[in-house]
Amino acid sequence: MAEQNAPEWRAHAAAGALLLLDTLTLGYAPAGPWDTPSFSLGVIGLTGIVLLYVAWYRFTFKRRGLIPWLDLWQDPAGSSQKAIIAGVATIALAWVLGNPLQEQMPDPSGLILTLIGLLMLLNGIYVKLSIGPLADSE
Q1: How many domains does the chain have?
Q2: Alpha-carbon separation of residue 132 from 7, 52, 126 (angstroms)
Q3: Tens digits of per-residue pLDDT, 84-126?
Q4: Of the residues 66, 92, 116, the one at which a domain ends
Q5: What angle do CA 72, 73, 74 make, to 5 degrees?
């Protein structure tokens, strides 16, 4: 029954993948009102990332929204560990994209991935603390 009421996620995933593909490979972007194609390309890439996140959220939790509330998690302890590991890996990838591969990637790639990695790390630590030392005691 929950599957029937689950919001559609495929359109968000397809649009996000196309926008991110354009940003990383094709590099097509209009000059826009700010008269700089590189800024437009960054906006296109960020929009693609946001759409991919929305698709992931809808696919994972079978509901509309953006914030993965703790009561939606099936295994908070295991998932928080995965979120922490993914956050650290994303920060490491951000360093690689921002330093050795800087010439091949759009300029703010490392900065944006660092932000995403830090948010993932913060989320994982929050869940660890919420089920551990900061848990409600009854």
Answers
A1: 2
A2: 32, 31, 10
A3: 999 999 999 999 988 888 888 777 788 888 999 999 999 999 9
A4: 66
A5: 115
